[in-house]
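[step 3/7] fold_predict: job queued, chain A
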Amino acid sequence: MRENMLMKFKTGSFNSFYNVQLLMIMVVASTLLGGLLFYFILHKPLTAAAEDYARQAAAHTQEITAVTNFQNAHLQMKEYRAELKKREQRVWQYLPEHMGQGEFMLYLERLALHNQMELQMVNPQKNISAEDNQCLPIKIRIVGRYFGLLKFLQGLQDGERLAVVKKMSIVSKGDTLECDMLIHIYAVPAK
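[step 4/7] structure written:
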């Protein structure tokens, strides 16, 4: 056997077999190395860049959508200004320049009568002034049925003035309710 291998080595057939095997190993190794180099040098950075561009595109798309929606909502500036003026008028209606104590008490009386309630007491308290507004606390006592009281409170909430119920106590007397409330109304004086 030694002689056979020695003979192959001398004739060069052993060397060519070894060279082919070595060549195959080098081809497989270089293919694997090339694949790894391609993955880490080209594919991975390009994939990360593509994901980054996709995120940026999504953010820009959201921004463009928001701007487009704003432009569509305010397409006609005259209409937009008219809407703002209406909102401002509603605010001044809820918060007028003067307290209008008498008008509000008349409104309370009409609201009570409209909801089959009896307004037994209306007692305005001392005016409270803050930096930019004034507040007038008013104590009232109202007597009536349950659903009438609910409608009265709903009417107070839906009224033309901002009226906040700060305290409320309800006492049941038979089939009627006696309700004491502390209501604050507000005004914003002109500067």
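[step 5/7] annotate
Residues 62 and 168 are 48 Å apart (CA to CA).
The chain has a mean pLDDT of 83.
exit 0
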